[in-house]
């Protein structure tokens, strides 16, 4: 078998066998296939696509290129969730203690932020002492004891995906749905969970800009999960404006605590409740996802899962007293307030630009080795559809001077106040394996 023959086969629209895909992944990971040939292969896939069998084979080959986590000694059904990335997405921070309180087991491996999307691991590290690196035995023991753990993704998980993604980034093949789906699912399948809910963001602040693209990606990821004998549900959620009000690492922890207290933003509470409902159904805690949703929403409203958040922080070495006074999470930054110049309604928000503005302040990375300022970011005082009066605060910037001028300019150009009261549809669609 030769790589040039497989490039040629895919170039003309041929369907690759499992054996052929395994050959490509194994030999590229081992250094037997050079970057220039792998680049040609990826471009052939970009133009010709892959069917669900090929995409599944690709995901499994990348999964098997490294460590596949064995969670069998965690009691009960192990659940997990994954977001395709957005602005202000602090769902995991709320969902982990909520799921644990309600009796399911969440063993979560998360990533760091890059570009305009924030990373759960960076957010947790804004809590002094919080340890995101746990030995596997300790990770599993913690899930057994308190129902959840959130750690950084091991470098041994899907190394083929890391190597291929770096190549996709410089060969203009990032936006290929089979490659995106296989990349995401290789890591999720390697993480060992029995049931997974995928939060697929769609809109101006998401990688998937249109509902049609998001549905195509979601269906393919659910199919891959089904073929790999995992319970997978995909939920399409709006990212036409940031999720919640706060963007930035410590600020998002603050808002997560607010939500666990029962005082969180409606959109964040809703998204967390919907995802939790499906996880509870998969875990057998509730009979249906609808029943699980109602249970989750009621639990949040009554603040019952907040002690589980403190328990998570304590278990991973974080300073519980620090987060119990959540104002500590606002840090010692300076503040700059952008106000409305006229009356009306907030009609549109460019979520992508808000994420970029937070990054310019130091909340996000342009390159993987950039150092973050964990206490800067944005607080959006108005959501789409809200009434606005001249002089009302629209956005507060928490800053330490870095990037302030650029962020102010970007934000000022990224929202529209008009005469129309708009309503966003938060949950666009849900795709489950039995609907395929």
From TrEMBL:
Pfam families per UniProt: Glycos_trans_3N (PF02885), Glycos_transf_3 (PF00591), PYNP_C (PF07831)
EC main group: transferase
Alphabetized PROSITE patterns for the sequence: THYMID_PHOSPHORYLASE (PS00647)
Gene Ontology biological process terms in this record: pyrimidine nucleobase metabolic process; pyrimidine nucleoside metabolic process
InterPro entries xrefs: Glycosyl_Trfase_fam3 (IPR000312), Glycosyl_Trfase_fam3_N_dom (IPR017459), Glycosyl_Trfase_fam3_N_dom_sf (IPR036320), Nuc_phospho_transferase (IPR035902), PYNP-like_C_sf (IPR036566), PYNP_C (IPR013102), Pyrmidine_PPas_bac/euk (IPR018090), Pyrmidine_PPase_CS (IPR017872)
GO-annotated cellular components: cytosol
Catalyses which reaction(s): thymidine + phosphate = 2-deoxy-alpha-D-ribose 1-phosphate + thymine
Recorded superkingdom: Bacteria
Record has Hydrolase as a keyword: no
Documented EC number(s): 2.4.2.2
Domain Pyrimidine nucleoside phosphorylase C-terminal: 345-418
Described function: The enzymes which catalyze the reversible phosphorolysis of pyrimidine nucleosides are involved in the degradation of these compounds and in their utilization as carbon and energy sources, or in the rescue of pyrimidine bases for nucleotide synthesis.
Subunit structure: Homodimer.
Protein's name according to its UniProt entry: Pyrimidine-nucleoside phosphorylase
Organism: Acholeplasma hippikon
Source species taxonomy: Bacteria, Bacillati, Mycoplasmatota, Mollicutes, Acholeplasmatales
């Amino acid at each position: 078998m030769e790589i040039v023959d497989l490039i040629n086969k895919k170039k003309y629209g041929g369907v690759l066998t499992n054996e052929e895909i395994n050959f490509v992944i194994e030999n590229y990971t081992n250094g037997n296939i050079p970057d220039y040939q792998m680049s040609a292969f990826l471009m052939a896939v970009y133009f010709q696509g892959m069917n669900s069998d090929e995409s599944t084979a690709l995901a499994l080959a990348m999964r098997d290129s490294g460590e596949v986590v064995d969670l069998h000694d965690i009691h009960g059904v192990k659940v997990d969730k994954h977001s395709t990335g957005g602005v202000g997405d602090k769902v995991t921070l709320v969902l982990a203690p909520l799921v644990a309180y309600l009796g399911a087991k969440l063993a979560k491996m998360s990533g760091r932020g890059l570009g305009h999307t924030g990373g759960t691991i960076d957010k947790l590290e804004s809590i002094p002492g919080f340890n995101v690196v746990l030995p596997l035995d300790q990770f599993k023991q913690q899930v057994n004891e308190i129902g959840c753990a959130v750690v950084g993704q091991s470098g041994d998980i899907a190394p083929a995906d890391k190597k291929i993604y770096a190549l996709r980034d410089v060969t203009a093949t990032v936006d290929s749905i089979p490659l995106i789906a296989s990349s995401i699912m290789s890591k999720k399948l390697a993480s060992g969970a029995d049931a997974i809910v995928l939060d697929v963001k769609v809109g101006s602040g998401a990688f998937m800009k249109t509902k049609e693209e998001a549905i195509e990606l979601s269906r393919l990821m659910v199919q891959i999960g089904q073929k790999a004998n995992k319970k997978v549900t995909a939920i399409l959620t709006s990212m036409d404006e940031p999720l919640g009000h706060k963007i930035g690492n410590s600020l998002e922890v603050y808002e997560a605590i607010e939500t666990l207290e029962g005082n969180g933003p409606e959109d964040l509470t809703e998204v967390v409740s919907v995802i939790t409902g499906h996880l509870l159904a998969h875990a057998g805690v509730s009979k249906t996802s609808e029943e699980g949703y109602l249970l989750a929403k009621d639990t949040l409203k009554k603040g019952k899962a907040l002690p589980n958040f403190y328990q998570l922080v304590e278990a991973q070495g974080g300073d519980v007293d620090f987060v119990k006074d959540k104002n500590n999470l606002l840090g010692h930054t300076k503040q700059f307030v952008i106000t409305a110049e006229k009356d009306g309604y907030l009609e549109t928000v460019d979520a992508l630009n808000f994420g970029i503005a937070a990054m310019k302040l130091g909340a996000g990375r342009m390159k993987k080795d950039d150092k973050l300022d964990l206490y800067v970011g944005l607080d959006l005082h108005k959501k789409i559809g809200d009434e606005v009066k001249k002089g009302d605060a629209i956005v507060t910037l928490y800053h330490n001077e870095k990037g302030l001028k650029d962020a102010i300019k970007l934000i000022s150009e990224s929202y529209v106040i008009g005469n129309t009261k708009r309503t966003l549809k938060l949950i666009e669609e849900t795709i489950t394996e039995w609907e395929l």
